[in-house]
Amino acid sequence: MPADVLARIALLCSGVAAGALALALLLSWVSLLPGVVHSPAGVHPRLARLRPAASLTRQVVGGTVWLAFAALTAAIAIQAVAAGRPPLASQYEFAVAFAWGTLGVSLFLRRRLGGYTAAPAVLLLALGCLVYASTLPSAIAPPVPALQNPLLLGLHVGCAVVAYGANAVAFAAGALFLVQSAVTARAGAPSRRLPPPRVLDEMGYSAVLVGFPMLGATLLLGSWWSAIAWGSWWSWDPKQSATLATWLLYAVYLHTRVGREWQGRASAALLVLGFAATLLTFAGNLFFGGMHGYAGV
Amino acid sequence: MHGAGGNPVKRPEQRHATDLATVAWRVLSSARAAVLGLALLVPPLLIGALLEQAPTGLRGDPLAHAAWLDERSSDLGGWTAPLDALGLFDVYGSWWFRLALAWLGFSLGVYVLARLERLLHRRRGGRRLVRGSGRRGSSAAALHTAVDPDDAVLACAGELRALGYTVRRSDGRITAARNRGYGVANLASHAGAVALLAAAAVNYVVGWQEPALAVAEGSTVAIGHGTGLAVRNERFAATRYAGTGLPRDYVTSLTLLRGGVPVREHYRLRVNQPLLADGVSIHQAFFGPAARVSVRDAGGAPLHTGGVPLTASDAEGRPAGLLAVPGYALEIIAPRPGAADRNVPPGTLRVRVVRPASPKPLAEVTMARGTEATAAGLRLRFEGVTWYSGLQVTYQPGAPWAWAAGALTLAGMVYAFAFPYRAARLTVRPAAGGSVIFVRVGGRAMGRAAELDRVSAALAAALEGSSPDAGESRRTVRAGEERSLAR
């Protein structure tokens, strides 16, 4: 099948994923409305009569998220076939993969955390990635000579995709934790329509445990590739520096949380800060300049 | 039976500082100092990423630096001077950034030494199975069961093993530990970070880089730096994508010579295919046009034959290159592509002959392709136009060590954070109608209470399963005997 036809099919799959995400997002926000409880542990006893509606909403949200993830997986796979390389060479391709990584890490952690997710925030982030991708040229660009290393392109940028996705999930957990803190300060108890603060704290930590080594691997593989293609293992390229700063922020988070037992708001604030650095690193292709400039195409 | 989770016992100050050195050692070897070192690096790195940094070649060249600042001022306006005064255009070369790096390296080094000393001390004093499950820095709970003490010890030991603990029993006591590799992983991660910084320092001190070695087709250029190596550009080819005009591939057919003898011939050098020899790596970096020129002295003796890379530009923006021959320097100027220029028309080459270190030209001639001219007694011939290949040559002996150290750091950190050390100490005592089991869980603070819950719940379930009367005992316990030791 011609590459341009495959690329159009990939674009269609991304569109299906965006639609599914929009529906899931809508339902997950509806589930936050008073009277609908979003918690796998069940509903508040006083709202027990709404249990079937809440359960159905959760199931529909879960199903549409899986549909979105499957559609994005298909989009990425088809784009890879069409391009004849890992589809991670442009800002458009990375934005789509970023959404995929965010959903993938969220679904992975959901199993580990007994069904809890930070769905409203995670879905918003994933959909945001796809909306941003829709503003970028999606045509398959042939790779410039520096990018003609499929193995390292796949490994280096693939690790970044998972890391960014994990950081997004950590941010979602941290942001919802801060929301829960605010609710607790005002109402005396956390909202039952969001996951409990303890779960959000654990979710953020678990996500960083995925993202931190992946971002470290991104740096290491990037350094190796840099030594091959650019002749320098470390060149203080703006993207390199921003990635290192992001990695250090998460290292501070882990050290303070594990060693100093920082938990709660301070840890959540660090997760928000870490994701701000992640977004800066991601969007930096557009204004950093330096040797990663071609990735902003 | 039922488990009651307790709050972690606060760790009090263990020792009083006796002198300044002890205080300094304690501060520097603390995780807090290393974390401070990590945090201190974040702002300069972000500044360096956001603010375009001056090329390192401008250091020590005030005129070039001023010219570069002039260019920046068109974007930054009045901020340029204060930002420059703060050193924010050269973050990575600034004393404060190097100080932050040194602080990180020093605190990490002291941390590693302190942990190593502790590890060796522990080995000299006989290896203990369990540490960190004493009253300090642990969480505790009590379990009540109808099972008799001997059976309870057996059941608890079995369950702890099932939970991944290494178990030792003695006289109604159980000591157990899990993730015992934590200490080594923690040490390895920090030692790796120190090694990475050391490797970077080795690269900085011993390594070198030749960032722009332009070699015209058919020319040979020495690499220098005492390597005895030289490269000859046999042929260069660049292809572009149809439509977009973006570069598709650059390939140089390169021959490497050691002491004038070819050691690698016609290597196809590409951007992702560097040539490695004697620890030196040669990379395809850029390319451009070159003018083929021959130069003879007044007696007809050849001074130069071959290409002159046009890597620079003259004041009018024309591609230009410099050729040094004995006693003279020749500025070779080519016409601007696609521009009408009366001084250097298309198809010609302008040569300006000067004395080295003297800007005043001795003579200036313009030659058409395939013609000869004489200038300042030199006989010049413009043979034609060709390509030069831009190479980057580097010697980075610390790079493989840096990658290995980075991988060690990463692996150690992942293990240490994902599998924190856990210790458990169980004391089983006879009680009315069965036994009471005091459970204490220690190790890393994070998740300790959750681990106590997990262990207590698993032990309770195991004890229930080991006695037919356990269910009745559990109800009795729930009525009033449940308590926590962590107060």
Summarize this entry quickly.
The complex is a heterodimer of chains A (297) and B (487). With 297 residues, chain A is mainly alpha-helical.
**Rg measurement of chain B, Å:** 37 Å
Q: Which sequence of SSEs, written as H and E, runs from N to C of chain B?
A: HHHHHEHEEHEEEEEEEEEEEEEEEHEEHH
Radius of gyration of chain A: 20 Å
Please estimate the helix content of chain A: over 70%
Structural summary, described in words:
The complex is a heterodimer of chains A (297) and B (487). Chain A has helices spanning 3-30, 51-83, 91-112, 119-134, 150-187, 197-229, 238-258, 265-283. Chain A has 8 helices and no strands. Chain A has 297 residues and is an all-alpha fold. The longest helix of chain A has 38 residues, at 150-187. The two termini of chain A are 26 Å apart. In chain A, α1 runs antiparallel to α4, α3 packs across α5 and α7 (238-258) packs antiparallel against α8 (265-283). In chain B, 35% of the residues lie in helices and 33% in strands. Chain B has helices at 20-28, 31-50, 62-76, 80-85, 95-124, 149-162, 182-206, 399-418, 448-466, 470-480; strands at 139-145, 166-170, 173-178, 208-216, 220-222, 229-240, 247-258, 261-269, 275-277, 280-296, 302-309, 312-313, 319-325, 328-333, 348-354, 361-368, 372-375, 378-395, 422-431, 434-443. In chain B, the strands form 4 sheets. In chain B, strands 4, 9, 10, 11, 17 and 18 form a 6-stranded antiparallel beta sheet that branches. Chain B has a 5-stranded antiparallel beta sheet with strand order 1-20-19-3-2. Chain B has a 5-stranded antiparallel beta sheet with strand order 12-13-14-15-16, with no helix packed on it. In chain B, α2 packs antiparallel against α5. The model of chain B is unreliable at 1-15 and 470-487 (pLDDT under 50). Chains A and B meet through α6, α7 and α8 of A and α2, β7, β10, β18 and α8 of B.
